[in-house]
Design goal:
The chain is mostly helical. It has three helices and no strands.
Length: about 80
């Protein structure tokens, strides 16, 4: 004996655009913008203090003698 003769998943009628998938499709740009904002904010909070170390290492490698020897400065006027 089936206690639920009409389950909500068996409905094929039009619900007037109130289903979750149609709502997500209409608001996808806003959802993705919020997602990327939250993701970058969390990454900024996690890596904020430590990103300075990476920048200093990168600047140090750019300023090394080997890289300075390969760089050509423009001729003075």
């Amino acid at each position: 004996m089936n206690t639920l003769p009409h389950s909500p998943t068996d409905r094929t009628e039009n619900d007037g655009g109130r289903s979750l998938s149609t709502w997500v499709q209409r608001h996808l740009a806003r959802i993705s913008e919020s997602f990327w904002f939250c993701l970058t904010f969390v990454l900024f909070l996690l890596m904020g203090p430590f990103s300075a170390i990476v920048v200093l290492i990168g600047l140090g490698s750019l300023a090394s003698e080997e890289n300075r020897a390969r760089m050509n400065e423009p001729a003075s006027l």
